[in-house]
Amino acid sequence: MVFSRALILAALPLLAVATAIQGRGGAPSSGASCCSTVGSASDPSIAKELGLLGVVLSGLDVLVGVDCSPITVIGVGSGGCSGGTTVTCTDNSHGGLVEIGCVPITL
């Protein structure tokens, strides 16, 4: 009985990481992305980019990824993320120009 509880508790962090990598709802998410810039929606340079796309996030302090591409094969060739930040985001419906509701992940 003690062993089964320990096993369940050990598996919970793995479940949390797998859920983060899959995406968390919203517009369809492809999983992990590599973004050249990640910052708050209130950051002036990111707010300008959002404004050019007609995306209104005023009053929301969410992380936004700019110039993102999906990571197809983690850590292999060009499939990894070099020179950017690896994130998973709830909304990537803007063709990789911006992704909204991002959480940085370490692979």
From TrEMBL:
Domain of life where this protein originates: Eukaryota
Gene Ontology annotations for the cellular component aspect, listed alphabetically? fungal-type cell wall
Q: Which UniProt keywords apply?
A: Cell wall, Disulfide bond, Secreted, Signal
Mind telling me which CDD domains this protein's record contains? hydrophobin_I
- Signal sequence, renumbered to the chain: 1-18
Q: Taking the first listed entry, what is the main subcellular location of this protein, grouped into a coarse class?
A: secreted
What are the protein's GO molecular function terms? structural constituent of cell wall
Instruction: Mention any Pfam family matching this sequence.
Output: Hydrophobin
InterPro entries recorded: Class_I_Hydrophobin (IPR001338)
Listed transmembrane segments: none
Q: Where in the cell is it found?
A: Secreted, Cell wall
Write out the similarity annotation: Belongs to the fungal hydrophobin family.
- What is the recorded name of this protein? Hydrophobin
